[in-house]
From TrEMBL, chain A:
It is an enzyme of class 3 (hydrolase). Its EC number is 3.1.1.61. This is protein-glutamate methylesterase. The keyword Hydrolase applies. It comes from Tahibacter harae.
UniProtKB/TrEMBL annotation, chain B:
Residues 12-255 form the CheR-type methyltransferase domain. The lineage of its organism: Bacteria, Pseudomonadati, Pseudomonadota, Gammaproteobacteria, Lysobacterales. Gene3D superfamilies: Vaccinia Virus protein VP39. InterPro entries: Bact_Chemotaxis_MeTrfase, CheR_C, CheR_MeTrfase, CheR_N, SAM-dependent_MTases_sf. It comes from Tahibacter harae. SUPFAM superfamilies: Chemotaxis receptor methyltransferase CheR, N-terminal domain (SSF47757), S-adenosyl-L-methionine-dependent methyltransferases (SSF53335). SMART domains: MeTrc. Pfam families: CheR, CheR_N. Signal peptide: none annotated. This is Protein-glutamate O-methyltransferase CheR.
Automatic annotation (TrEMBL), chain C:
It catalyses: ATP + protein L-histidine = ADP + protein N-phospho-L-histidine. Pfam families: CHASE3 (PF05227), GAF_2 (PF13185), HATPase_c (PF02518), HisKA (PF00512), Response_reg (PF00072). It comes from Tahibacter harae. Residues 747-860, 869-985, 1015-1137 form the Response regulatory domain. Gene3D superfamilies: 1.10.287.130, 3.30.450.40, 3.40.50.2300, Histidine kinase-like ATPase, C-terminal domain (3.30.565.10). It comes from the Bacteria. The keyword Endoplasmic reticulum does not apply. Keywords: Coiled coil, Kinase, Membrane, Phosphoprotein, Transferase, Transmembrane, Transmembrane helix, Two-component regulatory system. This is histidine kinase.
Length: 197, 280, 1139
C-alpha cells in the first residue's frame, strides 16, 4: 500500500455509494484524519421520503464534522457533507453547495453522477472521486467527467464490494487510477493532507 | 476555482450570455438561477438540440422562437408530487390552520407550483379542514406548459399509491381517493378543487407582488436561485404576506438570504414554516 | 487516607517520609533518654558504692593492719620474753619474723592511711613507738645473748618497755577508733548511695514501664487501625467486586445491597436507583416486608432527604415502626437506620437504606461512606452504559434499517436494470421509428417555418397599422391645433376681400353697372357667410383644443337677458315673430358664471329659434327648479325636430337635414359650440321637440358656477408622479397664516378653490381662534397638510387639479396626515364616498355658518382627545367582558353596548377610534347596523373590526368589506388577532411610531382591501398602457381583465356576468380604440340596465376638454388623462370602486 501515492493538493473528495454503502462508509469515514484540509462530499442512495440519519450515524464514527447539506451552504475544509435524501447535491462556484429536485439520474436522487460532474467542473485535477459498493450504474458517467477534468479516480475492487455492479459499471466506463479494497482506500485516505493551521 | 475544459470559464461566459439573451428576447429571467443546476440542464438541452456549444444554442434560441419554447421545458423543473414531505402538511394543519380559521376569506400563494401537485395538495388539505370554500389559492409558475398541465389536473395513476401514503402521513382526514378518479393509467383530480385555485404566470425573478395573502408556500423553488434571487423572492413573499402571515419553504432551504429574515419567526422549525412578525 | 493525593505528591512525600510517625518517634526518643538517664544514675550510684566499699575495705585493711601490727608486736614481745626466760633460740623465731614483717606492715599501714593526715601522723608515731619497742626488745635480747640475762631481766622489769607498749596500744586503739569512725561514715555513705540507687532504679523502671505501656497502646492502636483499614479495604474491594462487570441498575442495586447487608450484618435494607430525574425507585430489598420500599423523590422522607442533601444519614433513635423487621417468628423494629446516597460529583444516582438492630460502628459508617462513591460511579457508569447501549442499539437499528432499505433498493435497482435492458431493446425499435418520424418532422418544420414567416409578416404589418393609428391620432389632434392657429391666416385675407367688396358695392365713384354692383354684393355676402363659418369652426376648434377660457363673475340674469332680447328683437320683428322674456319668481338676481359665454349660448339658441320659426313666438324663460341649478329655456313654435335627429343636431358638422342649412343658412356648428360652452360652464343643453310643434332648448347651469370636470386646465401634460410640495399658486392665493404659524398646532387647513368661499372659511376659523392656511388646489392642500399638520382640514370636492375625494384618500393614506379629521364640503352629494374614505363630516353647499362652527368645534375636540376609545358592540355579556379584558389598557376606553340601537346612540354622541362589532345583535343584524351607520350623516364611521362567530359567505364578506377592513372569525386563535388589529387601529398617531413600524403600517395600507380581489376590466388596445395600468393596480390586489376594444369589453362584461365571482367591479376605458371606440362602448354599456351603475373611468389620451365632456356624456363615471399619474389613478379607482 505504500506504493500508492496521491496527487498533491487534493481539495475535495467526492464519494458515491449505493447498496452496502452504509456499512462501507461506516468503515471508511473513520479513516479521514482530523484536521483534513479537503472537503468531503458523500452521495449515498437512500429510499426517499424518510428523514435521513446518515449525518448522525457517520458523525459518531468520523473525526470530522458531518453535516447534511442545507441549500447554499458554504463549503468548509475538513467537513463531510452528506446529500439529503431526495435532493441532488451539486457544487457551485464559491464554492458553495446547491441542491436540486431535478429528475432522478439513473433512477437515483441524489445521483452520484450529478455530484461528480459538478465537482469535476469546479475542482478539476484537485478532486479525488471514489466509487464504492452498489447496484446499478450511477456514478460511472460522473467518474468519467472527473477523469476528463484530470481528477483522481478511485473505484472499490468489485470483488471487495458487497454489491459489485456499481464499481464494475464505473470500471467499464472509465479506467480508474486506483482499483482498491476498502482497506486500501482507508490507507489512501489517511494520506490526505491536513490543513496547516 | 474553475476546472479546465468546456465546463470552465468559456462555458460560464457562454452560459451568462445565453441567459442574458433569453432575458432580453423573451423576458424570462434565468440570470439569478443557481449555475450548477442550470449548467446541467443546459447540457441536456445541448444534447437534445444537437448543439455543440451554448453559443450555438444561443444563436438558435435568438432566431427561432420555437426553440426557446422547447428550451424552456429544459430550464424549468417540473418535478413535483402530492403531499411531498408529509410532515410539512401536518405542521400546516396543526400550527397554521388554527390561525387561518380566524380569517373570513383566505388567500394562499403557492409559488412555483410547477404542474400543480402542491396546489392541489393545499386545496385538499383546506377542504379537509373546512376552509377551502373561503379560500383562494394562487398557484403561479413561469412555465406556461406546466401551468396548462396543472390546470388539467391529470396525473400518472402509478404515483397515486405514493401520494396516498403521503396524504395519510400528512394527517389526512379523508381518503385521497375521494379527490380523484382513475382510468387508463391516469388519475384526474376532482374539478371542484379547481374552483378555488387560480393558476397563473408569475416570475419571482421579474414580477412583483399581486395580492395580499395569508400563506405563501414556496417549496424547493429557492434552491434553484442564487442568493440574490433568493433574497428577492423572499422579499416578495414578505411583501405579499399580511401581518402575521405564514411562509413555508423547502426542508433544506432557509431564510438566511432575505433582508427580511429577522421579520420571520419559526413556527415549525423542522418543517420550515415561519410567521411574519412586526419588527420592533 | 481515603483521599488519594496526586501522584506527584505521593512521590514527593514518599521520598521525604520520616522513619517513624512523629508521635511514635517522640516516644522512642523519650525512652532512649530514660534508659540513658537510668544507666547514668545507676552507674553513678554504683561507682559511689564501689568507692564507699573500697574505702570501707581500706578501713578494714587499716584495722587489720593495726591488729596485725599489734599482734606482731605481741609476737615480738612474746618471742623476746620466751627467749629471755629460756634463752632458747627457738623463742627468737617469732621475734625475728615480727621484726622482718614489721617494716612492711608499717609501710602498708602508712600507705593505707596516707589519705588521712591525722592517721598518717599517728601511723608515724606508731612506727616510732614500734622502732623504740623493737630497739628495747633487741637490747634485751642482745643482753641475754650476751648472757646478761639479769640485765636483760632488769631491763625488762623497767616500765619503759611496758610504757612503750601501752603507748603503742593506745595509738593503735586511737587509730582503730579513727578508722572505725571513718568506716561507720563510709557505711552511712554507702547506705545513702544504695538508697539513691534504689530510687533511681525504681524511677527508671517506672518510666520505662510507662513508655512500654504507651508503645503498647500505640502499637495496638495502629494495629487496630490497620485492621479496620484492611477491613474497610476488603469491604470496599469486595463491594467493588460485586459491582464489577456490565451490570444493569437493578443488578447493581441488588448486589450492592446484598453485599452491604451481609458485610454489616444488617438485617434489613432497601436499594434505590434513580434511572433519571429526581425519581428514585427501589430496585432491591433485603428482608424487606412486601409493603416496604416505595418510590421516593428528592426531599421526600428520610431517604429523600439524604438524597437531597447528598450525604449519609444516620438515624439513631428511630420511632418504633419506622422500619419493621419481619421474621417467621415475629416482628421487630430496627433501632438504627443508615441511608447512604450514591453520589458522584454532587449527583445522586441512587441510595441504600440499611436497618440495624444494634448501634452502628463508626467503621461501618466509614465503609458505607466509602462505598457511596463507588456505588455512585457504578450506577452512573451503568446509566451511561445503558444510554450508550441504547444509542448503539438505536444506531445499530438505524443502520440495520438503512441496510434493509438499501437491500430493497438494490433489489429495485436490479429490477430497474432489467427493465432498462428491456427498455434498451424497445429503444432500438423506437430509434427506427424515430428515423422515420424525423423525416416527416423535417417536412413539418419546413411548414412551420413558413407559417412562422407568415406570422412575422402579419406581426410586422400589425405594427405598421398600430403606427398608422397613432399617427392618425396625432394628426387628429394636430387638426384642432392647426385650426385654432389658422384664425389669423384665414381672417386676414377674408377681411380684405370683404372690405374691398364693400367698397365696390358702395360704388362711391359710380362707375359700376347694376350688375357689377350685384356681383360685389354677392362677393360681400358670400364672404360674410364664409367668415361666419370660419368663426364657428374656429370657435369649435378652440373649445376642442381647450383654449377657451372661462372667467366667472357675478352675472345679473335680468341684465343679460335684456341685452339679448334687445339685440334680437329687430330680427324677430322683421319675421313678424313675438320675442318674449320671462324670469320666474325664485330665480336669484345674479349668479356666478361667465356672462360672455352665457350670452353667446343664449344668443345662439335664440337666433336658431328665430331662424327656424316662421310664425308664432320665441320665448326665453328663466327658472330655477332646485337650489343648485338655473334653467334658461328657449321655446319656439317652429318646425320642430324629429326624435331621431335630436341627438345629431348637436354634433359638429352635422345637421338635422342636409337641406336644412341651405334653406335657413348657418353652419350648423352653433349648437355644437353652444353645448360645448354650456359644459365649460358646468351645465348642459337639453332638447324637447316634436316635428311641427316647436322645440324647447334648455340651458341648465349650476347656480354656484363651479362645474368641476370642465374646469380643469388641460394642455399641460401631467407628470406621472405629481410633485406635491410644489410652490403654492401665488396668483390665486388669499391672505392666510401660513407664514405666521405659531406652531401651537391650532391651525386649520382650508382646501377650496373658490376664493370667496375660502375667505369665508378662513374668517370663521379666525373667529374661533384658529390660524388658517388656505390651499386652492389638491396638490397644494396635500403639501400644506403634510407640512403644517393642521388640527383639522376643510376640504372642497371640486378642485381644479384633482378630485377632492382623491385628496381625501391620499390624506388618509399618508401616515403623517391620516389622523387629521377632514370635513368635506361640496356642491354635489358625495357624502357616502367621503365618509367611507374616512371623512370626519360632510356638508353640502351652501353651508350655514353655524354648521361650520360646529364642525370645527367637533374636530378640535376629536384632535384634543388623547385617550383612545373603542366601541364594542356585543350582546353576549360574557363575550363583552372578555373582549373588554382583552383590549383594556390605560389609555384605552372601552365602551360596550349590547344592541345596534345602543351602538348608533353611542356613535352619535361621541367619536370612537375603532369599533368591534359582533354581527349577531338582538335588534338588528350587524349588516343593517353598518348600513344605517353609512346612511345617516350624523353618525361618524370609525374603522370597524367585525368579530363574528359566523362563517361568512363570499357575498356576505364582500358586503362587509364595504364597511370593514378587518373581519375576524371567532376561533381558538382569534383573540390574539383581535388584539392585534385593534392595536393597529389605535395607533393613529403614527408619526410618533418608530419608522419601521410606520413603514410596516404603510405597507399594510398599500395593499388596500378596497382593491383586493376586485376585478377591473381594462379596455385598452395599447399593450404598454395595459402593462402600466396592471402594474399599478395588480400590486394592490386587483384582478385585471383585458379587453382590446369596445366590442371585447362588452363581451367580457357579458361573460363575467355569468358567474357571480367573476363580476367586473370597475371598468377603465380607453377612448381611441379600433373596432369600437370608448364613447360607443360606454354608451352601449349604459344601455344595459344592469350596468347603469357600473363605474367606468375613461382614460383620455389627450388633454382635450371636449373629450372629457364626451366621456361624461357617453356615460363615464369619471375620467383621467394620460399619461397616467399613478397616485391619481389608484385614488380614482379606489373612490369609484363599489364596496
Amino acid at each position: 500500500m505504500s506504493g500508492l501515492t496521491l496527487p498533491a493538493a487534493i481539495e475535495a473528495v467526492v464519494i458515491g455509494a449505493s447498496s452496502g454503502g452504509v456499512e462501507a462508509l461506516r468503515r471508511l469515514l473513520p479513516a479521514l484524519p482530523a484536521g483534513l484540509a479537503a472537503s468531503v462530499f458523500v452521495v449515498l442512495h437512500l429510499p426517499r421520503g424518510r428523514g435521513s440519519l446518515l449525518a448522525e450515524i457517520f458523525g459518531r464514527v468520523c473525526a470530522l464534522p458531518v453535516r447534511e447539506v442545507l441549500d447554499k451552504d458554504p463549503v468548509l475544509p475538513g467537513t463531510v457533507y452528506v446529500a439529503p435524501p431526495n435532493y441532488h447535491l451539486l457544487l457551485d462556484s464559491g464554492p458553495q453547495l446547491a441542491l436540486s429536485m431535478d429528475e432522478p439520474v439513473e433512477y437515483s436522487r441524489p445521483s452520484i453522477t450529478v455530484l461528480f460532474e459538478s465537482a469535476a467542473a469546479l475542482y478539476g485535477p484537485r478532486l479525488l472521486a471514489v466509487i464504492l459498493t452498489g447496484a446499478g450504474a450511477d456514478g460511472a458517467e460522473g467518474l468519467a467527467a472527473v477523469q476528463r477534468a484530470g481528477g483522481c479516480c478511485v473505484v472499490q475492487l468489485p470483488a471487495d464490494a458487497s454489491v459489485p455492479q456499481m464499481p464494475a459499471s464505473a470500471l467499464q466506463r472509465t479506467s480508474a487510477d486506483f482499483v482498491l479494497t476498502l482497506e486500501d482506500i482507508m490507507s489512501l485516505f489517511r494520506q490526505l493532507p491536513r490543513s496547516s493551521a | 476555482m474553475k476546472g479546465e475544459g468546456d465546463d470552465g470559464a468559456v462555458g460560464d461566459i457562454e452560459l451568462n450570455l445565453l441567459v442574458e439573451a433569453i432575458y432580453h428576447t423573451y423576458h424570462y429571467d434565468f440570470r439569478g438561477y443557481a449555475r450548477a443546476s442550470l449548467r446541467r440542464r443546459l447540457k441536456a438541452a445541448l444534447h437534445h438540440f444537437g448543439c455543440a456549444t451554448l453559443s450555438q444554442l444561443q444563436s438558435r434560441v435568438l432566431h427561432e422562437a420555437a426553440v426557446f419554447g422547447e428550451l424552456l421545458e429544459y430550464l424549468t423543473v417540473q418535478v413535483s408530487e402530492m403531499f411531498r414531505d408529509p410532515g410539512y402538511f401536518l405542521a400546516l394543519r396543526e400550527k397554521v390552520v388554527p390561525l387561518l380559521r380566524t380569517y373570513p376569506s383566505l388567500k394562499i400563494w403557492v409559488a412555483g407550483c410547477s404542474t400543480g401537485e402542491e396546489a392541489y395538495s393545499m386545496a385538499i388539505l383546506l377542504r379537509e379542514e373546512g376552509l377551502l370554500e373561503r379560500s383562494l389559492i394562487y398557484a403561479t409558475d413561469i412555465n406556461p406548459n406546466a401551468l396548462r398541465k396543472a390546470e388539467a389536473g391529470i396525473y400518472d395513476a402509478a404515483k397515486v399509491p405514493e401520494y396516498t401514503e403521503n396524504h395519510r402521513r400528512s394527517g389526512g382526514r379523508s381518503s385521497l381517493s375521494d379527490y380523484y378518479s382513475a382510468a387508463y393509467g391516469r388519475a384526474i383530480l376532482d374539478k371542484s378543487l379547481r374552483r378555488n385555485i387560480v393558476f397563473s404566470d408569475h416570475s419571482l425573478a421579474t414580477d412583483s407582488v399581486f395580492a395580499e395573502v395569508q400563506l405563501v408556500s414556496c417549496r424547493n423553488v429557492l434552491i434553484y436561485f442564487d442568493r440574490a434571487l433568493q433574497s428577492r423572492a423572499l422579499d416578495l413573499f414578505h411583501e405579499a404576506l399580511c401581518r402575521k402571515g405564514f411562509l413555508g419553504i423547502g426542508l433544506r432551504e432557509s431564510l438566511r438570504f432575505s433582508s427580511h429574515a429577522d421579520a420571520f419567526v419559526e413556527v415549525a422549525r423542522e418543517d420550515r414554516i415561519y410567521q411574519k412578525v412586526d419588527r420592533a | 487516607m481515603s483521599n488519594t493525593p496526586e501522584p506527584s505528591d505521593e512521590l514527593r512525600s514518599l521520598r521525604a517520609l520520616p522513619l517513624l510517625p512523629l508521635r511514635a518517634g517522640l516516644c522512642f526518643v523519650a525512652a532512649v533518654c530514660a534508659v540513658v538517664l537510668i544507666a547514668w544514675l545507676s552507674y553513678d550510684a554504683l561507682a559511689e558504692r564501689t568507692t564507699t566499699s573500697l574505702r570501707a575495705q581500706a578501713t578494714q585493711q587499716v584495722l587489720e593492719e593495726l591488729r596485725q601490727l599489734a599482734s606482731t608486736m605481741k609476737d615480738a614481745e612474746t618471742g623476746q620474753r620466751g627467749y629471755l626466760l629460756t634463752g632458747e633460740a627457738d623463742y627468737l623465731g617469732p621475734f625475728l619474723s615480727a621484726k622482718s614483717t614489721l617494716g612492711t606492715q608499717l609501710d602498708t599501714l602508712r600507705r593505707l592511711v596516707e589519705a588521712s593526715p591525722e592517721q598518717s601522723r599517728r601511723a608515724g608515731q606508731v612506727a616510732d613507738l614500734v622502732r623504740q619497742k623493737l630497739d628495747e626488745l633487741e637490747q634485751t635480747i642482745a643482753l641475754r645473748q650476751s648472757g646478761d640475762s639479769d640485765g636483760a631481766l632488769v631491763l625488762v622489769r623497767t616500765t619503759r618497755g611496758r610504757a612503750l607498749m601501752d603507748r603503742l596500744r593506745e595509738l593503735i586503739a586511737q587509730m582503730e577508733q579513727m578508722e572505725l569512725l571513718t568506716l561507720q561514715q563510709r557505711e552511712m555513705e554507702w547506705n545513702a548511695a544504695s538508697e539513691r540507687t534504689v530510687y533511681v532504679t525504681l524511677g527508671g523502671a517506672l518510666l520505662l514501664f510507662v513508655l512500654i505501656l504507651f508503645a503498647a497502646y500505640m502499637t495496638s492502636r495502629d494495629y487496630r487501625l490497620r485492621e479496620t483499614e484492611t477491613w474497610l479495604r476488603a469491604g470496599l474491594a469486595g463491594f467493588n467486586r460485586r459491582l464489577w462487570g456490565e451490570q444493569g441498575l437493578q443488578a447493581l442495586g441488588e448486589n450492592a445491597l446484598a453485599f452491604l447487608a451481609r458485610r454489616l450484618e444488617a438485617p434489613i435494607g432497601v436499594a434505590y436507583v434513580a434511572p433519571g430525574g429526581s425519581r428514585h425507585v427501589p430496585v432491591a430489598g433485603h428482608a424487606l416486608s412486601p409493603d416496604g420500599g416505595a418510590e421516593v423523590r428528592a426531599g421526600q422522607g428520610l431517604v429523600g432527604q439524604a438524597i437531597k442533601e447528598a450525604r449519609l444519614l444516620h438515624v439513631r433513635d428511630l420511632p418504633p415502626g419506622y422500619l419493621a423487621l419481619d421474621s417467621g417468628s415475629g416482628r421487630g423494629d430496627v433501632r438504627e437506620v443508615v441511608i447512604l446516597p450514591a453520589q458522584v460529583d454532587g449527583v445522586v444516582h441512587g441510595a441504600i437504606e440499611l436497618g440495624f438492630l444494634r448501634p452502628v460502628q463508626p467503621a461501618e459508617l466509614e465503609l458505607l461512606r466509602r462505598v457511596s462513591e463507588a456505588f455512585g460511579v457504578a450506577l452512573r457508569t451503568a446509566k451511561d452504559r445503558a444510554r450508550v447501549l441504547e444509542l448503539l442499539e438505536e444506531t445499530q437499528q438505524q443502520a440495520e434499517e438503512l441496510q434493509t432499505q438499501q437491500e430493497e433498493l438494490r433489489v429495485s435497482n436490479e429490477e430497474l436494470e432489467e427493465q432498462s435492458n428491456a427498455l434498451r431493446a424497445s429503444r432500438l425499435q423506437l430509434e427506427n421509428q424515430q428515423a422515420e418520424l424525423e423525416q416527416s418532422n423535417v417536412q413539418l418544420e419546413e411548414q412551420a417555418q413558413q407559417l412562422e414567416r407568415q406570422r412575422d409578416e402579419l406581426a410586422r404589418s400589425q405594427i405598421v397599422l398600430i403606427d398608422k393609428a397613432a399617427e392618425l391620432e396625432r394628426s387628429n389632434s394636430y387638426k384642432s391645433e392647426f385650426l385654432a392657429n389658422m384664425s389669423h391666416e384665414l381672417r386676414t385675407p377674408l377681411n380684405s376681400t370683404l372690405i374691398l367688396a364693400k367698397l365696390l358695392e358702395d360704388n362711391k365713384s359710380g362707375n359700376l353697372t347694376e350688375e357689377q354692383i350685384k356681383f360685389a354684393q354677392t362677393i360681400s355676402s358670400a364672404g360674410r357667410d364664409l367668415l361666419a363659418i370660419i368663426n364657428d369652426v374656429l370657435d369649435l376648434a378652440k373649445i376642442e383644443s381647450g383654449r377657451v377660457e372661462i372667467s366667472r363673475e357675478k352675472t345679473s340674469i335680468a341684465a343679460t337677458t335684456d341685452a339679448l332680447v334687445r339685440t334680437l328683437r329687430p330680427l324677430a320683428q322683421e319675421k313678424g315673430l313675438r320675442l318674449l322674456c320671462e324670469i320666474e319668481p325664485g330665480v336669484p338676481a345674479e349668479f356666478q358664471t361667465d356672462p360672455l359665454r352665457l350670452g353667446q349660448i343664449l344668443r345662439n339658441l335664440l337666433s336658431n329659434a328665430l331662424k327656424f320659426t316662421d310664425r308664432g313666438e320665441v320665448a326665453l324663460r328663466v327658472s330655477s327648479d332646485s337650489e343648485a341649478r338655473i334653467d334658461f329655456a328657449v321655446h319656439d313654435t317652429g318646425i320642430g325636430i324629429a326624435e331621431a335627429q335630436q341627438e345629431v343636431i348637436f354634433e359638429a358638422f352635422r345637421q338635422a337635414d342636409g337641406s336644412m342649412h341651405r334653406k335657413y343658412g348657418g353652419t350648423g356648428l352653433g349648437l355644437s359650440i353652444s353645448r360645448d360652452l354650456a359644459r365649460l360652464l358646468g351645465g348642459n343643453i337639453t332638447l324637447r321637440s316634436r316635428p311641427g310643434q316647436g322645440s324647447v332648448f334648455t340651458l341648465s347651469l349650476p347656480l354656484t358656477g363651479a362645474a368641476e370636470p370642465a374646469e380643469r386646465v388641460p394642455g399641460t401634460p401631467t407628470l406621472r408622479r405629481a410633485v406635491r410640495d410644489s410652490a403654492p399658486p401665488a396668483a390665486a392665493a388669499i391672505d392666510d397664516d401660513r407664514v405666521r404659524l405659531s406652531g401651537d398646532g391650532r391651525c386649520v387647513l382650508v382646501i377650496e378653490d373658490d376664493v370667496a368661499f375660502a375667505t369665508i372659511l378662513r374668517d370663521v376659523a379666525h373667529e374661533m381662534g384658529f390660524a388658517c392656511v388656505v390651499a386652492h388646489d389638491g396638490g397644494d392642500g396635500l403639501a400644506c397638510a403634510a407640512r403644517h399638520l393642521p388640527l383639522a382640514i376643510l376640504l372642497d370636492i371640486n378642485l381644479p387639479d384633482q378630485s377632492g375625494l382623491g385628496v381625501l384618500d391620499q390624506l388618509k393614506r399618508d401616515p403623517r396626515t391620516r389622523h387629521i379629521p377632514v370635513h368635506v364640503i361640496s356642491v354635489a352629494d358625495y357624502a357616502q364616498q367621503a365618509l367611507e374614505r374616512g371623512a370626519f363630516g360632510y356638508a353640502v353647499k351652501p353651508v350655514l355658518r353655524a354648521q361650520l362652527v360646529e364642525a370645527l368645534r367637533q374636530m378640535e375636540a376629536k384632535s384634543a382627545s388623547r385617550i383612545r376609545s373603542v366601541l364594542v358592540v356585543e350582546d353576549n355579556v360574557v363575550q363583552l367582558e372578555s373582549v373588554r379584558r382583552l383590549l383594556g389598557a390605560d389609555d384605552v376606553t372601552i365602551v360596550g353596548v349590547d344592541s345596534a340601537q345602543g351602538a348608533l346612540a353611542a356613535l352619535q354622541s361621541s367619536t370612537f377610534d375603532c369599533m368591534v362589532l359582533d354581527l349577531n345583535l338582538p335588534d338588528m343584524s350587524g349588516f343593517d347596523l353598518l348600513q344605517q351607520m353609512a346612511a345617516s350623516e350624523d353618525v361618524a364611521f370609525p374603522p370597524v373590526i367585525v368579530y363574528t362567530g359566523r362563517a361568512l359567505g363570499r357575498d356576505e364578506e364582500q358586503a362587509l368589506r364595504r364597511f370593514s377592513k378587518s373581519i375576524i372569525i371567532k376561533d381558538a386563535r382569534s383573540p390574539e388577532r383581535l388584539l392585534d388589529e385593534v392595536t393597529l387601529f389605535l395607533h393613529q398617531m403614527e408619526s410618533s411610531l418608530p419608522p419601521d413600524q410606520q413603514r410596516m403600517l404603510k405597507a399594510a395600507r398599500d395593499r388596500d382591501t378596497v382593491l383586493e380581489g376586485r376585478r377591473i376590466l381594462v379596455v385598452e388596445d395599447d399593450v404598454r398602457n395595459i402593462f402600466a395600468v396592471s402594474s399599478v393596480l395588480e400590486p394592490k390586489g386587483a384582478r385585471i381583465e383585458i379587453a382590446r376594444n369596445g366590442r371585447e369589453a362588452l363581451e367580457a362584461l357579458q361573460r363575467a356576468e355569468q358567474s357571480a365571482d367573476q363580476a367586473i367591479d370597475l371598468v377603465l376605458m380607453d377612448i381611441m380604440m379600433p373596432e369600437m371606440d370608448g364613447f360607443t362602448a360606454m354608451r352601449r354599456i349604459r344601455e344595459q340596465p344592469q350596468w347603469r351603475k357600473l363605474p367606468i373611468i375613461a382614460l383620455t389620451a389627450k388633454a382635450m376638454k371636449d373629450d372629457h365632456e364626451k366621456c361624461l356624456a357617453a356615460g363615464a363615471s369619471d375620467y383621467i388623462a394620460k399619461p397616467l399619474d399613478v397616485d391619481k389613478l389608484v385614488s380614482l379607482v379606489r373612490v369609484w370602486m363599489p364596496r
